[in-house]
Amino acid sequence: MRKRNNREDSDRDLKQRPGSGAAGPAAGREGGMGKPFRRLGLLGKMKKMMLWLLVVYVFIPFIVKLCPSIQAKLVFLNFVRMPYFIDLKRPLDLGLNHTRNLYLEPEAGLKIGVWHTTPALMWRAAEGKRGDWYDSTFSSSHPVILYLHGNAGTRGGDHRVQLYKVLSSFGYHVVTFDYRGWGDSDGSPSEGGMTSDSLFVYDWLKRRVDDKTPLYIWGHSLGTGVATNLVRELCDKGSPPDALILESPFTNIREEARSHPFSMVYRYLPGFDWFFLDAITANNIRFASDENVNHISCPVLILHAEDDPVVPFQLGKKLYSEASQSQSLSGHKVQFVPFSSALAYKHKFIYRSPELPNILRYLPAHQHQTPPGPMDPMRREVTTTPGRKQS
Ligand SMILES: *[C@@H]1O[C@H](CO)[C@@H](O)[C@H](O)[C@H]1NC(C)=O
Known about the structure:
AB_hydrolase_fold; transmembrane helix; AB_hydrolase_1; globular; Lysophosphatidylserine lipase ABHD12; binds 2-acetamido-2-deoxy-beta-D-glucopyranose; endoplasmic reticulum; alpha/beta; 14 helices
């Protein structure tokens, strides 16, 4: 009821013509949702529409241009905490009974929330265990995946939790965290902060994980941009991870923002780049994976669903083709695995693929044990869509 009144109040404010006094407050309150529109007549309707067009195509673009931080908020969406009522300190509530919650401090006074999920087969042993037990599990031969999540939500987001469960059931450790500004982590978001937090967690892992145990980096969506930033830095330092997995990646943030559903309304607006994309760049947000692949030297696996509505399939394919031509990646396996639209995995559901264990089986056991030779038949191969037959 209150909503409807507000709506009609604003209708009255818009009219402000003496002749429209007949549509007084009482009459307005009795009318249904459609009534105020009808009373406005054709001219009124057009005025209302013009006003909307003015707001959408003039006010909003200028406001964004004047306050580029709005664009940063839309890129990070860290204020969206879906699901709202979960306690990140209690991963058990989400059925993660072999997961430990801990906090690391990448910078003095800045704590970030981390989850370590052990391989599922350790779940009985994990009951009631503390941090030192969890740390000791890293010295087994089970491979470790550092998972870098995308924008919006927290490390407890449902599609993320489902992936941790799937990966841990395959025998992987999964370590994930909320970047500064996300979830229960301190600070505010920035591309540089996301990258340095991931480097900090990677180094923390590297000190605990056995030398012979493979360590992989898995990024999803916006997290793929963080992942290529991180792996580029690791390769620059001469210590690449054993593989980089990019789930639903894009080439760079400008191309992604141009094709994001949010941009639909504006895509054909003259000056779209100037209004919206330059505002992103003005925040120092680049996520230039297409550039980073020219500085990366470790096996790369790209997973992308053809029906991804958030990061278009074409962007993942484009990144793959750029990675295929990269000098620094020559001699390393670069693989692209598409998932047919018929499977409906969209942006978040690749974890549902029953083919995932087969796909991941080809990840190198450890880079220094099995260097990929130039004769490697899997090198730079586009695998046909797994599971196409099941649809
Ligand atoms: C704990 O998790 C494991 C692996 O996910 C599952 O198989 C098991 O049933 C869970 N145990 C309980 C008591 O919920």
